[in-house]
Each structure stands twice: as C-alpha cells, then as structure tokens.
Amino acid sequence: MSPTHVTNDKADRIEVTYACPANHQFVMIFAAGITAPATWDCPRCGKLAQLDASDQVTVTDTTATDIAKSHWDMLLERRSMAELSDMLSERASNLRS
Ligand SMILES: [Zn+2]
To answer: How close is the Cα of 53 to the center of ligand 1, in Å?
Structure first.
C-alpha cells in the first residue's frame, strides 16, 4: 500500500476505550499502528484511566482488505485481464445509469 493513496477517509484508525476509577468510560481514537497508551487522564475527573484492551476496535478492518484481495485473485485466475476490464467498465456504466 502506497502512502500517497492514504486519505483521511480511508486511514485506518483504532478506537480505544479507557475506564477510570470513578467508572467513567471514554473512547480515544488513534491511528492504526500506533500503540495506544496504557493509561489516559480521564477528561471528566482527571483520574488515571486504564486501557480497556478487550474493547479495542479497529475501525477499518484489515481482514476485509484481505478478503477483497483474495476475491480479486480468484477473479484473476478465472478471467483474463481483458475480460476483467470489460466487466469493470460494464459495471461502471451500470452504476452511472
Ligand atoms: Zn473519571
């Protein structure tokens, strides 16, 4: 994946839930690949909240990319590139109509 293709819309990010001792929960968003800090100051009471690792969510699921890629690979095995580009332009014109 080339960095030039990364846009703000598509950049992977993770949502990390923290829980503070006063039972406040809040979510911080980090770029994927960044290791979320184990603790964060609670924005409500200022106490040190602990990372709730079980609640960590990767917003852009990388497995989806893997699935799409293997579908693409399967298509390539079955069809020539010429057939594929015909198919894609057909689909594109369907989308426009
Ligand atoms: Zn708190």
So the answer is: 17
Neighbouring-strand partners of residue 26: 18
Whether the model clears a pTM of 0.70, i.e. scores above it, the answer is no
pLDDT of 24-41, one tens digit each? Answer: 999 999 998 888 899 999
Q: Give domain limits for the chain.
A: 3-58, 62-96
Q: How far is the CA of 20 from the centre of ligand 1 (A)?
A: 5
User: What is the CA(40)–ligand 1 centre distance, in A?
Assistant: 10
Helical segments of the chain, H only: 62-78, 81-96
Residue type, 75: L
Distance 52 CA to ligand 1 centre (A): 14
**What tokens appear for 29 in the block?**
């968003």
Architecture of domain 3-58: Single Sheet (2.20)
The residue length of the chain stands at 97
Please tell me the predicted confidence (pLDDT) of residue 6: 47
